[in-house]
Design a protein that fits this description.
- With 424 residues, this protein is α+β, with helices and mostly antiparallel strands.
- The chain is 40% helix and 23% strand.
- A hairpin with a 5-residue loop joins strand 1 and strand 2.
- The chain is elongated, with a radius of gyration of 37 Å.
- It starts with a helix and ends with a helix.
- 33% of the residues are buried.
Length: 424
Amino acid sequence: MAVSRLAGPAARRTLWLTLAICFVSLAFAAGSPGAKAKESGKPPKLDAKAWIAIDARTGEPVAENKADKRLPMASTTKLMTAYLAMRRLTLRKKVPATNYQGIPGESLMGLEVGQKVSVRDLLYGLVLLSGNDAAVTLAKAVSGTEPRFVALMNATAVKLGLTNTHYNNPIGLDGKSHYTSARDLASLSRTLMEMPRFRQIASSRTAKLRSYDPPLEIETINHFVLNNSWARGIKTGHTDKAGYVLASDGRKRATELIGAVIGTPTETSRDVETVKLLDYGFSRYRKRVPVLPDRAVVKVPVKYEDAGLALVSKRPIPIGLRKGEQAKVTTVVPGEVEGPIKEGQRIGRAAVSVDGDLIDTVPLFAAQAVEKPSLIDKATDNILLLVIALMVVVFAILAVVAFVRRRRQSRMRRRLRRVTRYPG
């Protein structure tokens, strides 16, 4: 009220108007569909023809919609091209660029006919720049001709269990039987992201093409990767028929999710809807760290000592768990250790698993040093054994003495009976 008296009528009206706007904004936010979805835990509705998010660890879906519908895939086709190139060619191999005549507006790496380029650099150009010329060059390097490569693509799709996928070309141009599904796209992406070299390529923001002279630095055209620090890839795509497509990978809360969004109306919506989808997926997980650095994972008995030796890991094992999941820590360690043991000496290992799936394994190290046991330590440790042995010896001696005494008494009684029977 003091502010109102000092400010005057105009200021008071401004203050009341500001408060009213804030109140309406809060009410609208509380009643908005996004807020309700968050509170109720319902999957978001995306502006796309189909989508899915899967757990990269298990392959299990977290959210999906029309995930098995066959749709054009645009340049996410190049994921299969990359897969076959990495399986059939060495990264250091240099191959001649093919004579590819693209139409205006196509994504190109900018290869010159006959130019010798390493498979590694072609893969970076394929994934980061979505180069159609790189795709055809890799296809011919693998199979000799584009038709033979397309046949290999389709045979590989069958082998990988991609039942709703078929290819007409290695690029992603629309074709009569060129299609995939969100589920197949996510599954192929998961297979690729299990390949360390591809993961490195897909998550790169920039790359240096070393087979160029001088080396050429490129930047990804994937704005999902550029604008989200937690993003790990993977591949964009767009044609008039397919709309905007994105195969994505991200990591939050010690959880890695893979997404596939097909058929958004704009490039911006493709990224926005993907973030919305993956954020929902991450909200279904809680982060746990069953193995922490410098915290005892297990204690093993130390020979000749009462206290056990704590074994620790030098790095953590974080894991994202869904409702109902539990992490299990198992160890492979000696049943007993004996000094001397140095602090930090490696002794055994620990593994974390969830529902039987191995997550990670770490070596375990001694948390402190253990000195070599002295003779007194060994004697003290064996005192009980000595006492028992002594008792056994004493018992044996007493038994022998008792036996001898009974024999002697028996002989005395026999003599006494003879003397009594035949007196002198």
